[in-house]
UniProtKB/TrEMBL annotation:
<dbReference type="InterPro" id="IPR015424">
    <property type="entry name" value="PyrdxlP-dep_Trfase"/>
</dbReference>
<dbReference type="InterPro" id="IPR015422">
    <property type="entry name" value="PyrdxlP-dep_Trfase_small"/>
</dbReference>
<dbReference type="Pfam" id="PF00155">
    <property type="entry name" value="Aminotran_1_2"/>
</dbReference>
<protein>
    <recommendedName>
        <fullName>Aminotransferase</fullName>
        <ecNumber>2.6.1.-</ecNumber>
    </recommendedName>
</protein>
<dbReference type="GO" id="GO:0004069">
    <property type="term" value="F:L-aspartate:2-oxoglutarate aminotransferase activity"/>
</dbReference>
<dbReference type="InterPro" id="IPR004839">
    <property type="entry name" value="Aminotransferase_I/II_large"/>
</dbReference>
<dbReference type="InterPro" id="IPR004838">
    <property type="entry name" value="NHTrfase_class1_PyrdxlP-BS"/>
</dbReference>
<feature type="domain" description="Aminotransferase class I/classII large">
    <location>
        <begin position="32"/>
        <end position="392"/>
    </location>
</feature>
<keyword id="KW-0032">Aminotransferase</keyword>
<dbReference type="GO" id="GO:0006520">
    <property type="term" value="P:amino acid metabolic process"/>
</dbReference>
<comment type="similarity">
    <text>Belongs to the class-I pyridoxal-phosphate-dependent aminotransferase family.</text>
</comment>
<keyword id="KW-0663">Pyridoxal phosphate</keyword>
<comment type="subunit">
    <text>Homodimer.</text>
</comment>
<dbReference type="InterPro" id="IPR015421">
    <property type="entry name" value="PyrdxlP-dep_Trfase_major"/>
</dbReference>
<keyword id="KW-0808">Transferase</keyword>
<dbReference type="GO" id="GO:0030170">
    <property type="term" value="F:pyridoxal phosphate binding"/>
</dbReference>
<dbReference type="InterPro" id="IPR050596">
    <property type="entry name" value="AspAT/PAT-like"/>
</dbReference>
Length: 400
């Protein structure tokens, strides 16, 4: 009999973290490695947010807080939802966790039973399926193909719903593709959900403010108010505010669900970091003028990467609407061989050979549920992105 839990055998470690760790190990060993796997902005946290964190320490805000968030942060979150999304919530409808990841995990742990299904469009963020499995549920995947801009259709959603469906897990703009759903496209999906009142919506809006080229972000409960009472809208300060290490995520939804999430959190981590909560208040309530120039830099980087990868014979790289990822297809490279005779049979082999040959660390598409692709995070400097893409071009040119 194994000492470890049978539940643990249902899941695997995060592939994105594994690639980042491998890149770090190779760098420490002296290899020239460019890591493009981490979804983390290279910008500093804005000064006024850092100042709020320092002030919190100096003012003694270093003790336990309420399990799921201090009152002024919950008020700031309610104001954010009203200001940005036209959604009215009270503090009792808000939960704050140690990153958006914990909030998602808590929601699934609080609601899933054996045989419950969670519909997840693929490609998906690598942690979604494993969190569902840890919570005892069953992930059900809908493939969103390149031909449809990596977005699912209403007919696909309708076909995936069963009597066991508990959640539809939605993410726009998407990690890993950057694909965003327009208001009309999202309304078509919510129309399907209205016909199935037993299905709840878990909307991961983490990349809300990272939207480009006129793409207008919208969230399900905003588009279809009739879904308000069965939607949990998740967000956080990690990405747009360059606060990944501060670890603050939040969500708003029906009070009974928020109470259940609070119960889970009370018996796991308890409250998020008190200092980080104060900094998050400053992030949400303070100046937002840094977002536009940051996005301009992301657009420039996105265009650089898309242009350089699109110049490679065998790679198709669509232009994403938001976030800071591209998800190129390598369908045209499958079956080719490296000079050493290694055949590119799938995207994992491609990523492995790319790292071994030229020191560029990317995440293979199978980790996100759709192949043959790979994901690049362009949340790093222009110089590193240009060098990395040049190396990818040179690697692919050697394939025959």
């Amino acid at each position: 009999m194994s000492f470890l839990s049978e539940t643990l055998a249902r899941v695997k470690p995060s592939p994105t973290i594994a690639v980042s760790n491998l890149a770090a190990e190779l760098k420490a060993a002296g290899r020239d490695v460019i890591g493009l796997s981490a979804g983390e902005p290279d910008f500093d946290t804005p000064e006024h947010i850092r100042a709020a964190g320092i002030a919190a320490i100096n003012e003694g805000h270093t003790r336990y807080t309420a399990v799921d968030g201090i009152p002024d942060l919950k008020e700031a979150i309610c104001a954010k939802f009203k200001r940005d999304n036209g959604l009215d919530y009270t503090p009792k409808q808000v939960t704050v966790g140690t990153g958006g990841k914990q909030v998602l995990y808590n929601a699934l742990m609080a609601t899933l039973n054996k045989e419950d299904e969670v519909i997840i469009p693929a490609p998906y963020w690598v942690s979604y399926p494993d969190m569902v499995l840890l919570a005892g549920g069953t992930p059900v995947f809908i493939e969103a193909q390149l031909e449809n801009d990596f977005k699912i259709t209403p007919d696909q959603l309708e076909a995936a719903i069963t009597r066991n469906t508990k959640w539809f897990l939605f993410n726009s703009p998407s990690n890993p593709t950057g694909a965003g759903y327009s208001r009309d496209e999202l309304k078509a999906l919510t129309d399907v959900l209205l016909r199935h009142p037993h299905v709840w919506v878990l909307s991961d809006d983490m990349y809300e403010h990272l939207a480009y080229d006129g793409f207008q972000f919208c969230t399900p409960a905003e588009v279809e108010p009739q879904l308000y009472d069965r939607t949990l809208t998740v967000n956080g300060v990690s990405k747009a505010y360059a606060m990944t290490g501060w670890r603050i995520g939040y969500a708003a939804g029906p009070e009974p669900l928020i109470a259940a999430i609070r119960k889970v959190q009370s018996q796991s981590t308890s409250n998020p970091c008190s200092v980080s909560q104060k900094a998050a208040v400053a992030a949400l309530n303070g100046p937002q003028d840094f977002l536009a120039p940051n996005n301009e830099m992301f657009v420039r980087r996105r265009n650089l990467v898309v242009d350089m990868l699109s110049a490679v014979d065998g790679i198709t790289c669509p232009v994403p609407d938001g976030a800071f990822y591209v998800y190129p297809s390598i369908a045209g490279l499958i079956g080719k061989k490296t000079p050493a005779g290694v055949e590119i049979t799938n995207d994992e082999v491609f990523a492995t050979e790319l790292l071994n040959d030229c020191g560029v660390a990317v995440v293979f598409g199978a980790a996100f549920g759709l192949s043959p692709n790979f994901r690049i995070s362009y949340a790093t400097s222009d110089a590193l992105l240009k060098e990395a893409c040049s190396r990818i071009q040179a690697f692919c040119a050697k394939l025959s």
